[in-house]
Amino acid sequence: MMITPYSDRYWPSLAKFLATNYPGMPSKNDRRYFLWKFAENPLGSSLSAYFLVVDEGRVVGQVSTIRDRLWVGNAWQDCYWLVDLMVSPEHRRGTAGIELFQAAMSACPTVLSVGFTHRTSALHRGLKWRWGPSMTSRFIVVRPSRLAAIARSSVRSAGLTEAALHVCDGIVMPLQVAKNRIYRRLSQKVKVEASDRFDNRFDELLDKALDWSMIQPFRSSAHLTWKFGLRPCGMHFTLAAREPGSTGIRGYMVVRLMYRPGLAHWADISDFVVRPDDAAAFRSLLNEAVGRAISYGVDFVRLRYSGERQIPAGVMPPGFRHERPMDAVAYHSNVLGTATQLSQRLWALTAVVSDLTDQGRDEWDSLKTQ
Are 43 and 27 within 8 A, CB to CB? Predict the structure, then answer.
């Protein structure tokens, strides 16, 4: 058994491994999706840091990474997000998982992880990773029964509880629709428009965002086009906020439409950039995002971010707060001083990082599925 970087000759065996070990995530073993995610990133391929466990020519384990950069101390620093650590059940008694972790740590200048399990959390602690911010999730609920179905998909709920939630659907949904219509009418100082492409207006905004003194992931019009526009599956819409009569934008939101068959349709606000003190732009973007999502028939809208400083003061998203320990960020760096800098500064992350919205499942490929 050996640890080796990915090469194309292993693809047939890797595809079988992914199909077997991720049965509910059909895109993971799709060749087009695989190349888009790991080889076509404008920052460069991460396949050199995609490690496999091979036993007698057969892939029995893997860890993959997604290339990124972090804005730290007025400079970009290369980093990789560690995703999809998996070892086949019959090989988990050995040290393959630890060896995969160590291979990624050695190959990457700085490596980060988010959304890990209890098993990988123990690996983080054992290998002396540091802890970063926790991702906060906020939900705007349209149909409570559908959000509960996602949350409880592994547990059979009592019939009385389900009946009560369905009654709530008939109350909450019209209230959310009416409330959103009022909010959208009040947001007249900032014009919010749908954008079918990421152009130089986005680059100008992103350049200004670097002055906000927060740790941020890399963004550019080319990177956003790859992340959303060139994605081989799924649906999204992009909103841009500007002053009437102005060509420049004050902020944007990208919203991905998600669908889990038999359970729920929802909208993920996957990325947003708005100046932290621009309450009018953030409020207008959020109201428009929620309104459009409701018009598509979603059951709830989710917004995820890493720090309250990202949200303008006094403009908190409506809904309830829901945090999970697995949404904490962990990191390790081989670059002198980087780990210390990461521990001393505020972070500004959204669900665009890592694979939070790119897990190979829940793709809403057609509005006909409503």
Answer: no
